[in-house]
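In the lab's daily routine, each protein ends up as an entry in a very long ledger. A line of letters takes care of the sequence, but it says nothing directly about the fold. The three-dimensional part falls to structure tokens, numbers that each stand for a local backbone shape. The outcome of that step, for a single protein, is printed below.
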Amino acid sequence: MKAGGGWSLLCLVVLTAAPLSAAEPPSDSLPEPLTLEAALKFARPQVPLLLKAEAQRRLAGAAVRESEAIDGLQITAEGRLWAIQPSYRSTDSSNNDSNARLRVYKRLYDSGYAAARREAAERRATASTTGLVDARQRQHLAIIEAFFDVILADLEFARDNEAMSVAFVQYDRAKDRHELGQVSDVDLLELQAAYEEIHRRQATSAVRQRLARSTLAIALGRPGELSSDLQMPQIALPETSGDGDFDLFWQQVEAGHPRLIALRERLEAARKGVAAARRSEGPVLSAGLEASAYNRASGTTHPLGGGLRLSVPLYTGGRREAAVARAEAELTGVQAEWQEALLTLRQQALELWLQKETLRTDYQALQIEGDYRELYLDRSRALYDLEVKTDLGDAMTRISEVRLNTARVLFAWTLNEARMNAMTGKLLENEP
């Protein structure tokens, strides 16, 4: 089976899995037939994976703004409606002691606490942004895998449907010969059992067609929108491996994997968190201005005021020590996540790397088998035309099996390449 011609044999007509509406389809509806490129283009972001990542990014952004407010300018307006019984010594006998006040406040020095909090929050925000990229890559991969699974389900159904047709013809002919006494009861029941088994497999394949389409719809963020016709993608394996060196690939993974990038940012955030905890109960120097208006003037009232204020905690009841212990425990946890991610991702990277050669070998073997099956099918057709006993039906089923296995290998290769690109953070490089 040649690479181009053999793969073209994989094209098939997909059975309708859901009735098409007679009404005008909405502008954002999935095109028919659905290509892989269109599936990725029309995917919606309203999937739990992306929604959770976006929520984490927004929470991190809010934490940055909160940290910036620690030593930011604070402006407060106060008003008080107040009635009093004036002292007999007061020169103002009115009862209205209401006032209004405008205060401007700014923290000038806090031993670096606000700066450490702010940098920690910014690091976490960067990590959450990278986490969103990782989530988008995972959805991208899920769509590719679900798309391929639909086509494989259709190919399995085509294979099982063809096998069932062959088995039915054999069983039907055996019934006629059984009536003539040419086939025994045992042989007839054997053929009937074989037909029923293949019929069961065909029914299972039909169910898998529907389930695979539902999985694709969910991956696209379009639950319930089942595509009836999917277009077979054109996939060609490169003639030479050009795999290079695994250590070079691992260096690219270490530098570009979104999860590792996010963990590096979280590590720095945790370290800054420890620094912030250690400075959380230090001296604080603040500056303030105040403008006031009073209904009753007295010797203690003043329209304008300003100055510096120094606050030095002498005893906090262990709050600082508790904050430091909590921050150090968080740092230890992130360090453990980092080590675990390195070990896990290195193993995954090696598996993907080695899988390339395995898939290449599988594909080459299937090409040889495909050539053999095509020649065998041609011979079976010739014998059939000469009315010589032949296994034409079985030969056609074997061809369908080869097509299915070839599609499995090509899809596995494409997914493997996509996962390797995802590990280096390059899967979505060409997306807007």
About this structure: DSSP finds nine helices and four strands in the chain. The radius of gyration is 36 Å.
